[in-house]
Each structure stands twice: as C-alpha cells, then as structure tokens.
Amino acid sequence: MAEIDQSNLINKVQNLSDLELATLLCLVANQHCIIETEDEALDQLGQELSLVASTNFGLSAAIVDCSANQSLDDFRRDILVLNNGWNGQSSNDGTSSAKESSFPRSRNASKRTESTSHSLPAMEEMEKQALAQVIIAKNLNLASLQVQIQALELIRTKRIFTHTAFHTASKRFVFIALLSADRSRPKLVSHLNDQIFVSHYHSSADGFPNLESEYDSTADDGASMSSVVRKPAEGPTKHIPKDPIFSDTDIETLTSQRTKTVISAEVKRYMQNITTFLRMHRAVGGGISAYTTRHFDLLVKCLAPLHSLNYATPSLVVLAARKIYPHRIAITKPENERSMQWGSDIRAVAALLEGITPEDIIDEVIAMVEAPL
C-alpha cells in the first residue's frame, strides 16, 4: 500500500507546473522564494500564485502591493486575513491558522487615507485576523528599508506584532517575493535577499493555468479566454476551494524523505567545488555566503524525493545551483575586478563584464567543474 501511495505522490509531483513545484519545494524545505516575471504580468502572476496556494495546498493567501510609500502599519495589516472564511490546512502546533477566501483581494496601500489606517475599528478588526499562510509581496524590492526589515523579521521568527495583537504564522508558511525581472530595478536588502531560499523566473508566455481555469469557470459562455485573461487583475468575487491536491500528509512525507537523502562524498565534493569556483569567479563581487551553502545542501536533499530517489546525483546538484545562486550573486564593478590589482586596463575589464548575468556565471562554472561519474 505504501508503494502505491508513493507512486501516486510522485505522479502528482510530476504533473505540477513550475510555480506549483516552486511552492511545494518551499513547503517541504520550510523556506521562502523569489518569483520574477515581466512588469506587465505581475498582477496576473500574483493571482496565479494565490490560486496555487489554495487549489494545490489548501492554504490561504494574501497579496500585498508594496511601494516606497507603504508604511509598516499598512504592511502588517495587508498580510493578515479574516478568520470568518474557510479553513486552510491548519497546523497542530497551536499556532494561529489563517482562514479566508482563497482568492485574496490585492491591497494597494497608496489608496488608503491616514484616518482609516489609524482608526480604532481597524485596530479592533486586526485582533480578529491571522497571518496568511502564503504571503505574496509584490514589488517588495521597492518597499522602504523598514518594511523589508519587517519582512525579514517575519521570515526568521514567523511572528509579527501589531499595535493591539500578536500574530504567529501557521506550520505551513511561505513568503513569496514577487518581483520584476527588470535588472535595472533595485534588489532586496542584502540580509533579506540572503534569507530567500530559491528564485525562479516565470515567463508570461508560459501562461497562468490556474488563473485561466478560474476565470473560465466564471466567465460568460460568449467570452473568449484571451479576452478574459487580459482583464485587470481584480479576481472573481468569490472562490470556493475544493480538496487540495497535496494534503498535509503528502508534504510531511516529502519532508521526512528529505531528511533521509544521502549525499555521497563525491557529490559533496562536487557541490563544494561549484561553490568555490563561484566565489573565485572574476565577475563575482559577493553573495556566496555560508548561509547560501546550507540552502544549496537543503535544496539538493529536497529535490531527491521528488525524483523518487533517496540519494543526490550530479544532475540534481546542477538543478539546485541554478535556483539557489542567481538572486544572490553580485556582479563586481570593473574597478573592483580582481585583475585590476595587476594593472589590467579598466576599459578592457568593463568590456568583459558588460552584459554578464548571474546565470552566465553559473553556466560557466558548471561547465568548468568536473562532475563525478
């Protein structure tokens, strides 16, 4: 029976989309992620991720529109959900459980008045709320330093204080930073960026299957799918979640298998060589921290059970490297490039570094490091 259950679990994993798989990995690892896409697709991707949380995992979600004008009170309020809706999969550890319609409204802090954000009824309402189990922070990199530090504290401690209440995250908790893929935009503050487990780029060309299915079920018969999907991302007024595809037991099973994954000495050496070569690459100015190395090891162990393995392989190591390092690698400035100490021409160095991306560096290192047989 156990083998049949394991086979069914692996079949469910293999049918996941890229966004669903990223969310599952975060739940199994008890970590958080960055999802990037084009500017014009941010709203649709936020709605897609909220549906992934509810449809696949039975978790409540909150979408937060971050901006430079967003206050700490706005942020704290926006990540809370009401307790008068459906129950997400609650934990048994006594922490607060989020309950709300699984298709959250997007909140824009800039549209609120000061009187509303500091009113007594609003504070009383916050006492009746709980932290969402999946928080989707859109444009978090544009938020103030104070808001990003608050997000860092929430990730590290899984709790948050408001003026009138203390909220603790449930056992299943994922924080998703939804960012623009535009390289000219500022990055997250360094400490917060280092705490993020994995990063993933989702192209709008890959579609939004859950969102399209949701709108398709509520649209008029005469409305075409193409016209519906391109509407402003306001979402339907109500979404009634069905039984989630992945139960709490499924996630517990994958988590247990993760801890039993074996990494041989040869594969471990391969991982360490990749880390060392990345640190020594002439275009890398930093970002390969010890915390990153622990995340690298954790992701390799998480990927193994998803491929029906109880051991790590070089191919899993390569896959993990492509998800762990891109958002962390800092490209050095020409004047700080290592060869400048020996008299290199800064114009030649600048030409060498022009256009290079973290993905290019990772590909180059993977090609250089010999994989074990």
What is the C-alpha radius of gyration, as a whole number of Å?
A: 22 Å
Structural class: alpha/beta
Please write the string of helix (H) and strand (E) elements.
HHEHEHEEHHEEHEEEHEHHHHEHHEHH
* Silhouette: globular
Average predicted local confidence, pLDDT: 84
State the separation between the terminal residues, measured CA to CA: 35 Å
> Helix count?
16
Helix content: 40-55%
| Lateral arrangement of strands in the main beta sheet | 4-2-6-9-1-10
Low-confidence stretches: 84-105, 107-120, 225-240
What's the main sheet like?
A: 6 strands, parallel
* Approximate strand percentage: 5-15%
Per DSSP E runs of 2 or more residues, the count of β-strands stands at 12
Question: How would you portray this structure in words?
Answer:
The protein is globular. 45% of the residues lie in helices and 12% in strands. Mean pLDDT is 84; it is low at 84-105, 107-120 and 225-240. It is α/β, with parallel strands linked by helices. Helix 2 crosses helix 11 (248-259) and helix 13 crosses helix 14 (314-324). The strands form four sheets. A six-stranded parallel β-sheet has the order 4-2-6-9-1-10, covered by helices on one side. The relative contact order is 0.14.
